[in-house]
Amino acid sequence: MANCCLENSESKALLDKLDEVIDKYKDTAGPLIPILHEAQGIYGYLPFEVQLHISERLGIPLADVYGVVTFYTGFNTKPKGKYVINVCLGTACYVKGSENILDRFKTTLGIDIGDCTEDQIFSLEACRCIGSCGLAPAVMINDDVYGNVSPDDVESILANYQL
Amino acid sequence: MADCNRKIDNVEQLNEIRERMKEKLKPRFEEGAAIHILLCGVAGCLSTGSLKIYEEMDRLIKESGKEKDIQLVSTGCMGLCAQGPLMVVYPDRVMYTHVKPEDVEEIWNSHILGGKPVERLFATESDGRKVAHALDEHSFYTKQLKIALKNCGVINPLSIEEFIGVDGYKALATVIKEMDPEEVVDLIKASNLRGRGGAGFPTGTKWAFAASQLERKKFVCCNADEGDPGAFMDRSVLEGDPHSVLEAMAIAGYAIGSDQGYIYVRAEYPVAVKTLNEAIKQAREYGLLGKKILGTDFSFDVEVRLGAGAFVCGEETALMTSIEGNRGEPKPRPPFPAVKGLFGQPTILNNVETYATIPRIINMGVAWFNSIGTEGSKGTKVFAVGGKIRHTGLVEVPMGTTLQDIVFGMCGGIPKDKAFKAAQTGGPSGGCIPAIHLDTPIDYENLIALGSMMGSGGLIVMDEDTCMVDLAGFFLHFTVDESCGKCTPCRIGTKRMYEILSKITDGKGEVEDVDRLNVLARNIKNSALCGLGQTAPNPIISTLRYFEDEYMAHILEKTCPAGVCKSITKFFIDKETCKHCGICKKHCPVAAISGDRKTDFVIDQEACIKCGECFKRCPFNSVLHH
Ligand SMILES: Cc1cc2nc3c(=O)[nH]c(=O)nc-3n(C[C@H](O)[C@H](O)[C@H](O)COP(=O)(O)O)c2cc1C
Ligand code: FES
Description:
- The complex is a heterodimer.
- Chain A folds into 2 domains: about 5-70; about 85-160, Glutaredoxin, CATH 3.40.30.10.
- Chain A is about 45% helix and about 10% strand.
- Chain A contains 7 helices and 4 strands, in the order ααααβααβββα.
- In chain A, strand 3 (about 140) and strand 4 (about 145) form a beta hairpin.
- Chain B has a 5-stranded mixed sheet. Chain B has a 4-stranded mixed sheet with strand order 2-1-3-4. A 4-stranded parallel sheet of chain B has the order 9-8-7-10, with helices on both faces.
- By secondary structure, chain B is α/β, with parallel strands linked by helices.
- FE2/S2 (inorganic) cluster binds near residues 129, 132 and 133 of chain A.
- FE2/S2 (inorganic) cluster binds next to helix 5 of chain A.
């Protein structure tokens, strides 16, 4: 099997990190989910090879690892863009029209929810309540929160990230 | 090696720290020579720049060399999120709102040095007045009674000593030094405390059940998954007062005979996770978690586990399955978790707010707690009030407060003087409460009787521009997404209901669809495996109950009275009242509006994407819809 992303030296460093994480949780009851969280922190997402490695090291069938990864929306099997746009569709934001904001992001970027722009700069996601209901409708791009957003603001918000 | 000396070995040492800190915190509660500047450092205030404000103020304090007399503290949520970033200067108790980094110098020179508060930044009352002492004068605060949120916004959440200074870990000391486990369970029973996570199950009964199990290994879990979209009560407690939760979990551990706790937090709350981990570290350092707490034989420790974005993991059996490292699918009960829960051992699970209430009950007494609230619901409830409301934020009120009081009395009513249509409580499992029931006292029983439920405390206000059919569709879409797929009624039934709703909002509904919805709703309610499916039909049942006319308008007249449902809404411009200002044209994202000073403004129906921007923007209400 070609473990493409686990081969060169950079990958080796990442793999060492992953092994450290796995060792750290050696004595933890129910270690799989904490390990997946940290693995995603290392790789940015959970490629097949990483799932396989975790499965082998923990002695948990790959099907079970895969089952857990795909059950939780917090785990990604595809890489994300450099900037992840999260449009809040929580109730407070929804009743204040956040769906129109999402629509504007879709048309402006030409991508759908869950997709990434071709240049890998932006991913578009919808999320539920980022705890900024006081600022509804809210949009989060990586760690930046924008409040009281109107569809007209979309272009100027994106401009902050386009160099 | 100062670090090693932090460990508190007995109650006397705890009392010493408390007395020392009480003295230090005096300016915040009584009088004092020192000035304490408290700044909200979380949630909305953090996203609107409170960190910069903190840095700026910190710089001014350091430059002045007055670090001894002026203390700057980053706190948890102060509640009035709509007017953040918030700052309170003690002992004057002056609250500043919408503070910007460039305002800091003025506050410093005028107020801190000159003793003259900056009026311009005072909080705004619902009638537009500025009030200096919002905490004592603003209607948003005066009707609140803080039990679970008592320390939020008043102490530094990252300082265990400040927490001890406001009677923190005093209840734990009382319990493990002076009471038997059975007495603790009896006390919680007598307090009539009910779970704040949704269903309102009596906490004491749950504890008694787990305490009576003979197994040696038991677990205490805390539900901090806060899945209701549009709610942030638990997050505020975790970010503003994490030690209260740890203290209560230790108390629960003592009561049921457990030495290990787990807090299950959503990964979407990174600040809460960081705060919790820091609090746990400190509590271990001070010997308030770990082995032989306060020199007794009682040991207890807590671990944080992260969720990964699955709503169903808020359900108790699913939560435990998830901690074990599996797909978070619920299990049939019985066996109840109190008998066979996490890793097959007896386990109790309580909500964050439930825990945060417990140390207060122990410190203040059962009689005090029972004097607050209604017959069947004692104490207070925290609500995250959002949606079409002037003062969005976090309020804690005695059970039995009316919706009228919360929406209009405290939170300032609906902006732009639009009409109140309904409030939604209980999130995707709950229902809506229409205007005619505004004066019902809110408690567990009354909300159920109205077809809604308390839920965890999300309270979303809706005005005349909200379409109730669309809203039901919004929640159904949520459940379809979040159904774990294990049981058929939920996996397939919710999907069918959502399809019928979509048909109606697309203008293709038939009168029979209402019956179909009713039948499906009843069947799903009766046959789904867990609370998610059993409550999923609630948003439909409740909107049908109060707003059947809106459903009928969609079905019979193919119109959306609120102008939300895109396929059946047409926007047009009223020639009579149009003032030719051109604002609609400027904001139309698809250039579907033509017209100028001389010619009439018209909307090209072919090009219109029905986003409603023109409707929202028109200053003269000349954009209409049907
Ligand atoms: C689908 C579903 C989601 C839930 N989500 C939460 C939640 O996010 N937070 C919570 O405290 N309880 C939630 N609950 C309720 C829990 O199952 C459980 O009753 C509660 O945490 C018990 O704590 P309490 O007695 O202190 O309220 C949920 C229940 C269901 C059925
Ligand atoms: S609903 Fe959007 S931030 Fe809470």
